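Check this:
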Amino acid sequence: MTVTKRLIPINAGYYSTDAGAALGVLPRAIWEKRISVDDLHRQKVRINLLLIQYEDRLILIDSGIGNKLIDKKKKIYNYADFLLPASLQEVGFSRFDITDVILTHLHFDHAGGIISIFNDTPELTFPNARHWVQNSEWHIAKSPDELNAAAYNYDENLALLEQSSKLKLIEGNYKLTDDIELIKVGGHTVGFQIVKFTFKDDKAIFAGDIIPTREHLPLPIISAYDISRKDTFYAKKMILESDSRIYFSHDIDVWSI
């Protein structure tokens, strides 16, 4: 009997972010030779998710921005349409087919799509899915300190999930299946987790915002958005030394390397 284990890249849309903040200590004199920006110095990035077809489960990593942004924020982030439903349909699935959603962290561009507006009503985008989140990440998102207050929106993006039976809080590393492990590394956020795959023919890591683009592959290049540069550094070092295919969360041209 053949067991289905497949990784499928999913495009959830595009938005723009400040290039200098995204590239941290990398001087503009270097990055501006390789990266195109608009007149507000914003770099266009893609929202890269990963769908895992695993036996009878359909597991999605992250949820994108969603469709709830007000016009002011759409303009700030130069946000394009929420492409996730259409992208799922292109590979033969719907939002109702998703059995699990792994949240690397709960920033708006990764967790905004947990809840969407359908027929003018907010509801879980993936009503049949368990949502896997690190306990420490959930609690900083629900009750952020002054350092994290601007990074999360509990009422808009998370409250409805907590009211459901679909929230699964985990503590530290967690084996979702024999071949899929969630590894808490911190760095970008307090409870950031990467996803490691050890399929027979595909050893890979979804690095998320630890290594969001190819420009972030060098160890010292760490986003200014990261809460702990030191933790990100050691997480990157572990990922780069793992001899695995690396999936990026925001590279606009390349899904993995």
Remarks:
- Residues 175 and 181 are 4 Å apart (CA to CA).
- The first strand starts at residue 5 and ends at 18.
